[in-house]
Amino acid sequence: MPVGPPNLCRMNGAMSVASADDTTPGRADTLGGVPLDALMACPQCDALYEARMPKEGERAVCARCHTVLIAPKRKAGLKIIALTLAVIILVFSALFFPFLTIDAGGFGNKASILDSASSFQSGPMVFLSVAVAGMIIIIPLVRTLLILYVLVPVVLDRTPYAHARRAFRLTQELKPWAMAEIFAIGCAVALVKVADLAHIGFGPAFWMFAVLVIIVLVNDNYLCTWSVWKSLELDQQEA
Amino acid sequence: MTAREAGLVACRRCARVWPMGTERCGRCGSHLVSRDTASLGRVWALWFAGVICYIPANTNPMLITQTLLSSSSSTIVGGAVELLNHGAVGVAIIILIASVLIPVGKFLAIAYLAISVRRGSNVSARRRHHLYEVVEFIGRWSMIDVFVVAILSSLVQLSVVASIHPGSAALTFALSVIFTMLSAQAFDTRLFWDTKDQRNDTT
Ligand SMILES: [Zn+2]
Ligand SMILES: [Zn+2]
Q1: Total domains, chain A
Q2: Whole-angstrom Cα distance, residue A70 to residue A53?
Q3: How far does Cα B72 stand from its chain's mean position?
Q4: B181 CB near a chain A CB, below 8 Å?
Q5: How confident is the model at residue A159 (pLDDT cuts 50, 70, 90)?
Q6: In the CATH scheme, what is the code of domain B36-198?
Q7: What is the DSSP string of A19-52?
Q8: Which residues of B touch A193 (CB under 8 A)?
Q9: N or C: which end of chain B has fewer CB within 10 A?
Q10: Residues near B97 by Cβ (< 8 Å), separated by ≥ 6?
Q11: Range(s) for CATH 1.20.140 in chain B?
């Protein structure tokens, strides 16, 4: 990933918010002549920039704390929509096929992802079942559906659907709680843990799940949140 | 120059800036605060909850294994030692890192960062910010142990030959991870970057 030259113009100290009488009375919506909606502040360290779309394949990075601020990708919207549809198909098929199989001394067992998620059943352990099901299936799926809901109108140049901005905010808030990739690595650890007790095999759902994890990771890489917010804002002004 | 110095308040969700005093972001609807000084209280409260849950997570059994001849329960550390004895050094190390080194390291790192914001620190803001990013990134991975317990308990149900059941430590460990993640998320990282004078202005 090439990191381009600084695409953002750092605002320097000589500026101040235009006083209220420069603009519409009672509101200051420019800073040294630059409208506020052309500015952005690093969410992590508050450094102020004049936002400029970086060239294709380049990223705008905060000069102070190195947080990636803008990272647009070519045809990102279409790619994300295609990958998202794949995720939905994979989740539903992975749920019902056997996930892992085991046999030892003539006894065998199969477990689906749902079995794993609901393995905590006594008393307060039920909470754990709910949390695990949420982190490995529900939250990744909900995020995917919400991203689809937000991006389809943006890509088609239509007005966003109702509550698109609330939906997109939710996808960002849920991001750390989607843990499908951690569950996938957990399968490998479980496999080694009981290796001398029994033989474990991977069912078809395991491979679907593995593909799904890769897609989810690639998908998040394509998603430039700033660009999405920008387009949601434009649509709002037109409406 | 920061948004605050320019008399602006920035949205931490969508990076849009607004005139100081604006309460809700007009673009994404998030609540706006220039510096969330109350965040440290939330960080500490969640930190304590995480530490308290971590204690029973280590003293109680994580897994209960029943075989034809015996029934044994193992704690997190006990399970890793067992793996070591079986020669699975790699996995034992992964488990020790994910469920001992990372959680303890996270508690120490968050406590240090919270103290450094209040008292100031000789360590540069960039390094402290970097430490915060590491904590945020690896914090979620501690859940791997809970997932392993979930997988094993659903899979290893082989009638009388062998069966595995989750112990209560699985619950307290998961709670500890969740509280610590919330504690890290509650941090307002912009506080690292303010110099001492600026900090005094705000309080
Ligand atoms: Zn920054
Ligand atoms: Zn916002």
Answers
A1: 2
A2: 7
A3: 30
A4: yes
A5: confident
A6: 1.20.140
A7: PGGGSSTT---EETTEEGGGEEE-TTT-BEEE--
A8: 79, 83, 88, 91, 148, 152
A9: C
A10: none
A11: 36-198
